[in-house]
Automatic annotation (TrEMBL):
GO terms of molecular function: metal ion binding; poly(A)-specific ribonuclease activity; RNA binding
Keywords: Cytoplasm, Exonuclease, Hydrolase, Metal-binding, Nuclease, Nucleus, RNA-binding, Transcription, Transcription regulation
Keyword Nucleus applies: yes
Record carries keyword Electron transport: no
Protein name: poly(A)-specific ribonuclease
The EC number(s) this enzyme carries: 3.1.13.4
Cellular component GO terms held in the UniProt record: CCR4-NOT complex; cytoplasm; nucleus
InterPro entries reported for this sequence: CNOT7/CNOT8/Pop2 (IPR039637), RNase_CAF1 (IPR006941), RNaseH-like_sf (IPR012337), RNaseH_sf (IPR036397)
UniProt-annotated location(s): Cytoplasm; Nucleus
Catalytic activity: Exonucleolytic cleavage of poly(A) to 5'-AMP
Species classification: Eukaryota, Rotosphaerida, Fonticulaceae, Fonticula
Pfam family, one: CAF1
């Protein structure tokens, strides 16, 4: 979510919206096809619940990791590999766009936009409200 807030601010050179509905309108405008693997995995039924972050999911999916954890390139590659592994293993290589595209895990919670805005408070050039 914070990555999208940062990107939207950079792309629009404007303040982030004050509410999630407007935030999602911008998300869909700039990123019409987003799939959040954490959101997708919440719908998957497994014998053992999958908890944790990206590295835990990669271990569960038996993915070969490349590079250092928490580095942008390595995490991006791991996220991509995880997405395709999830799609193949749990969804027969087909995800319903209506059900999964455009959702971000953790949003629709009261105060999530305020949390993003607080990250940018006091930055030079423009504050976000």
């Amino acid at each position: 979510m914070y990555d999208f807030g940062y990107l939207l601010r950079a792309l629009t050179a404007q303040q982030l919206p004050d509410n999630e509905a407007d935030f999602f309108r911008l998300i869909r405008l700039f990123f019409p096809w987003i799939y959040d693997i954490k959101y997708i995995m919440r719908s998957v039924r497994t014998a053992t619940p999958i908890r944790g972050g990206l590295q835990d999911l990669a271990t569960y999916l038996q993915l070969s990791l490349v590079g250092q954890q928490h580095q942008a390139g390595s995490d991006s590659l791991t996220t991509s590999l995880a997405f395709f592994a999830i799609r193949s293993r749990f969804f027969e290589d087909s995800l319903e766009a209506e059900k999964f595209s455009g959702h971000i895990y953790g949003l629709n919670l009261h105060g999530s936009i305020a949390a993003v805005n607080s990250l940018f408070a006091g930055t030079s050039g423009s504050s976000i409200h």
